[in-house]
Each structure stands twice: as C-alpha cells, then as structure tokens.
Amino acid sequence: MLALGARSTTQTQILEGLTFNLTDIQEKEIHEGFHNLIHMLSHPENGVHLNMGNAIFLKEKLKPLQKFVDDAKALYQLEAFTTDFNNPREAEKQINDYIERKTHGKITNLVKDLDPQAVMLLASFVFFKGNWEQPFEPEHTKVREFFVDAETTVKVPMMHQTGRFDFYFDEELSCTVVRLHYNGSATAFLVLPAKGKMKQLEQTLVKETIQEWSDHLFQSLMSLYFPKFSISGSYEITNTLSKMGIVDVFTDQADLSGITGAPELKVSKVVHKAALDVDETVTEELPNRNKRACYWMST
Q1: Residue 218 contacts by C-beta under 8 Å, 6 or more apart in sequence?
Q2: Boundaries of each Serpin domain copy (predicted)?
Q3: Gyration radius of the chain over CA positions
Q4: CB-based burial of residue 225 (10 Å sphere; 0-12 exposed, 13-18 middle, 19+ buried)?
Q5: Which of 22, 25, 19 is nearest to 8 (CA)?
Q6: Are 280 and 135 in contact (CB under 8 A)?
Q7: Contact 128, 107 (CB under 8 A)
C-alpha cells in the first residue's frame, strides 16, 4: 500500500525490493494483483477465515489526497482516521484499540512511545484462522519433551495423530517436510531440519524451495507429533528492507507525495508484530507494520 503513495525512485525501490520486474509489469497491474489476491483469499469458499485491512492515522491538519484514499480503499480496504499525535498517550490508545479490535484481540499494544512530532502512521493487519482438515484429538495431547537445540529441552503439550500425510525428505537441505491441510485450499508446511542444519535451512528458504517440496511430496503413513503452542514477537525491520534495496523512503530523498501532496514525508520506522496460535483444531496467525515521523506498522 505504501507504494501506492510513493513516487519516482522511492516507488521503484519499493516495488523492485518486492522482486517485481517493472519492465515486465506495470504498477497498476501490481496493485490490481494484490487486490485480486485479497479478494480470493477472503472468499468463504476457501474454508478459512482471513481478515485483511489497512489504516492510516493522520495528524489533524494533514489531509490525505482524495485520490490516494479512494484508490487505497478500493484496492487495500483502507480506513482513514484523524489522530492527535501531540497527545501520544491518547494516540497510542486510539491506534492500539483499533488494531486489537481488528485482530480479534490477538495483537495488543502494537504502538508505544510514539513521537509527538509524528504526522502519520500506516498500519496493515492480517488475521488468519484455519481449521485442520484432520484435527488432532485433544485426549491424545500429552506433555512431552521438545528439543529447542542440541542441549536444551522443554516440556510442552505435544499433539499426536497417526495417519497418511504428505511427506518429503530434502537430501540437499537435510530436512523433513510434512504438509498439513486446512479445510478448503490452504495448507501448512512443517519443516524439521537435521541436527545442526537450522541456519542452512533459514538461509535457503525461498519460494522456489517451497515449490520444489510441493512437487516432490508423497503420501506416507506416519506417527506425527506436533507441539501445541502460542508465540508472538515484534521486529524492527527497517534494516532488512534497506538490504532489499528499499532505501530512499527512510531518507530525506523520500517521495511520498502521492499520499498527502507533501514532499517532506519519510518513513522513520517499520515495525512488524506477529502472533501465532496452534492447537488441536485451528491455526490462528497475525502477521502486523509501521511512518517525518511517519510510522509504518504491520501485524
């Protein structure tokens, strides 16, 4: 959505950083593609619940361009709000209450220590809930050991079921892959690296790897143990985006004039917060990002 309001080199860096080849595809096609993807994923026939949206919180005297609001609402389901950043505590409450409501209480206290000089905050959220096609029986969940690393184990509620699952062992990456299905068309990949191979797996995990696994999966009878867990974390990903070539948007060279018409806006911080709950029947996931001071936040 940020690219929708970016111009010149700033926009090019954002789109190319997302691996789009701008000689082969036009910006309009990219936004329409995301719009169609959101519509497809949100369709109830998929058998999963997916709630996606974006919000812009603006300083009271800063007005967004009507074209940006109209386009972002049509393409990315944008909602726009006026916010008094001079009162950081009230601004934080307004933004956090909105995100908590939209993520069904899963993401709380996303924003803290807001800069009173902030003029805008962009927030994106995704709420996913999927029911396992083959649920785990709660009575089979027992406390067992989970190996955090070679020396550390913890006691966790371990789910269990025996059946036929999509399976593959990747000899090159030394990892075992199991694919579980949700009701509908969504799937989840469980990947277990061999001892000492976690870093190697993390460094080579790209979409082509997932596709290769999908092409080689076969049905196998197995006894599957899978921990029941809830995790969450917040990450400042400005440096990560800079390494992807998205640089100007964080500097005085930023051109986000397509949002408000004001040329001096720049992104000061990008924060990503995610929460994941997995149990016997469902997976609930919330990936959430945050921008002069303009924050760009996502859940």
Answers
A1: 166, 167, 168
A2: 1-291
A3: 21
A4: middle
A5: 22
A6: yes
A7: no
Whether 128 contacts 285, CB under 8 Å: yes
Instruction: Report CA torsion sign: 72, 3, 119, 92.
Output: positive
**What's the rounded mean pLDDT across residues 7-27?**
94
The tokens for 261 are 């018409």
- Provide the pairing of β-strand 78-83 with 48-59: parallel
Distances (CA, A) of 31 to 15, 16, 26, 248: 10, 14, 9, 21
Q: What percent of the chain has pLDDT over 90?
A: 48
Residue 183 CA to residue 149 CA, distance in Å, equals: 33
> End-to-end distance of the chain based on CA atoms, in angstroms?
14
DSSP the chain: -HHHH--HHHHHHHHHHTT--TTTS-HHHHHHHHHHHHHHHT-GGGSEEEEEEEEEEEETT----HHHHHHHHHHH-EEEEEE-TTSHHHHHHHHHHHHHHHTTTSS-----S--TTEEEEEEEEEEEEEEBSSPPPGGG-EEEEEESSSS-EEEEEEEEEEEEEEEEEETTTTEEEEEEEBSSS-EEEEEEEPTT-HHHHHHH--HHHHHHHHHH-EEEEEEEEEE-EEEEEEEE-HHHHHHTT--GGGSTT---HHHHS-TT--EEEEEEEEEEEE-SSEEEEE--B---EEEEEE-
CB atoms within 10 A of CB 125: 24
pLDDT score of 117 more than 80: yes
Identify any residues that bridge with 156 across adjacent strands, giving them in sequence order.
144
Alpha-carbon distance 57 to 125, whole Å?
14
- Going along the chain from its start, the domains and CATH numbers come out as 2-130+230-298 (3.30.497.10), 142-227 (2.30.39.10)
